[in-house]
Amino acid sequence: MRSPSACRRNLGRTHVRQDPDMTDTITPAGTAPAPLQFAVTKNLAAKTTAQREQILQDPGFGTHFTDHMVDVCWSERGGWHRPRVQPYGPISLDPAAAVLHYAQEIFEGIKAYRHADGGVYTFRPQENARRLQRSARRMALPELPEEYFLQSLRELIAVDGAWVPSAPDQSLYLRPFMFAKEAFLGVRPAKKVAYYVIASPAASYFAGGVKPVKIWLSQDYQRAAKGGTGAAKTGGNYAASLLPQSEAYAQGCDQVVFLDSDGNIEELGGMNILFVKKDGTLVTPSSDSILDGITRNSILDLARDRGLTVETRAVSLAEWRDGVASGDITEVFACGTAAVVTPIGALKGAGFEDEQPTGELALSLREELTDIQYGRREDTRGWLYRLDD
Ligand SMILES: *Cc1c(COP(=O)(O)O)cnc(C)c1O
C-alpha cells in the first residue's frame, strides 16, 4: 500500500514497469536517476518573519530548527520513494524500529552560506553525498544517489531559504540523516529506511574571537576500532565518545583526542587534527578508523596550493609530545564543518599537561577557507554549489 504521493514522481516513466517505485532499481549504473518529484506540504504554523529574525539574532548551535524537513522513504522492494517536504516535527516510529535497538544510522553535516548578492551556496556537497554513500555501505544501509542528496538540500532551501542568515560568519547547518525504520527485532539490515534533512541556523562558532581549546587525551577509551565503524559518520561513534568527553570536562578540558588501535593519534571524535611543523609541513594522521573530513581535505588542498608540503601518515603520541618540546611542531589545530578550525592550546593526559604552541597558519587557512565559503574570495576550484536557483 502506497500513498498517492509515492507514485507522483515517476509520471511519464511508468511505461518501463507497472510499479513506479521499481524504476530506481533498474536505472543503469553510471546514469543519473530521474529527479524525485517532491510533494510539498507547507507548515501552517511556520515562524513569522519577526520570530525568525529574533532567532537569527542569536541562533546558537543546534537548538533552533527551520519550519520544514525533507523526508524520503526507501524499501528493499520499492527503492527510494515518497519524497516529501513537510512541516518540521516529531517522527512517528514503531518501538521495534531497528535503529532504536541496533543503531543502524548515518548522518552528514554541511552548511548553507548567504553571499553578499543574496544567493545561497553550499560547499562541496558532492563530497558529503559520496561520504554518505560510504557510510551507508559500512552500515548496510541503501546508498542515496548523489543527485537525490543534492536535490534534497535544494528542496529544503526552496521552502526555508529565508532561514539562511546574512550576518557575518553565520550559516544554516544542514543535517541529512538516514536510519533503519523497519519494525523487526531480528538482526539483519533493515528493509525499510528513512532519509531526512533538517536544518538549524548556526552562529559564528567563535563570536568572541577564536579561542584555543584544551584537549584531554583519552587513554582508557577509544571511539572506534580497526575494522570498526570509525570511518563512517554514524551515531554509535558519537555514543562511544560521550563518556570520555565527560572525563574531559571533569579534567577541565573542552574536547577529547582519541588514539587508534595502534596507539597513534586518531582524531577528536568530531573534528580531525592537524600538526604544523617548523618548516611549514602540515601533517595529519592516517588510520582506517578516522572520519575523512571534508574541511581537513580542503585545508590540505589550500596548503598545497600555497606550496606547503602535506603528509598524511601515522602520528604517534611521542612524535607529538617530543615535537612540541623540541619546537619542531609549531601549531596544532582541529577542523570540521561546525567550528571550521579550532587551535589547540593545551594537551592534558594522565600525569602530564603540555602547553601547545600557537601560530598564524591555522587562522590564515581558516580565513581563506571561510572567505571562499562566504563568497568573499574567488572560488577557483569549483567548490561552491548554488542551492537556491
Ligand atoms: C563530521 C566529522 C568530522 C569532520 O568532517 P567534516 O567533513 O570536515 O565536517 C570529523 N570527525 C568525525 C568523527 C566526524 O563525524
TrEMBL record:
| Reactions that this protein is recorded to catalyse | L-isoleucine + 2-oxoglutarate = (S)-3-methyl-2-oxopentanoate + L-glutamate; L-leucine + 2-oxoglutarate = 4-methyl-2-oxopentanoate + L-glutamate; L-valine + 2-oxoglutarate = 3-methyl-2-oxobutanoate + L-glutamate
List the Gene3D superfamilies: 3.30.470.10, D-amino Acid Aminotransferase, subunit A, domain 2
What EC identifiers does the entry list? 2.6.1.42
Positions where N6-(pyridoxal phosphate)lysine occurs in the chain: 233
- Is Zinc included in the keywords of this UniProt record? no
Its required cofactor(s), as named, are:
pyridoxal 5'-phosphate
Q: Which InterPro entries match?
A: Aminotrans_IV, Aminotransferase-like, B_amino_transII, BCAT-like_C, BCAT-like_N, BCAT_family
Give the record's pathway. Amino-acid biosynthesis; L-isoleucine biosynthesis; L-isoleucine from 2-oxobutanoate: step 4/4; Amino-acid biosynthesis; L-valine biosynthesis; L-valine from pyruvate: step 4/4; Amino-acid biosynthesis; L-leucine biosynthesis; L-leucine from 3-methyl-2-oxobutanoate: step 4/4
Pfam families according to UniProt = Aminotran_4
MF (Gene Ontology): branched-chain-amino-acid transaminase activity
GO BP terms in the entry? amino acid biosynthetic process; branched-chain amino acid biosynthetic process
Region described as Disordered: spans on this chain: 1-24
Enzyme class per UniProt: transferase
**What is the protein name for this chain?**
branched-chain-amino-acid transaminase
Q: Could you tell me which species this protein originates from?
A: Microbacterium album
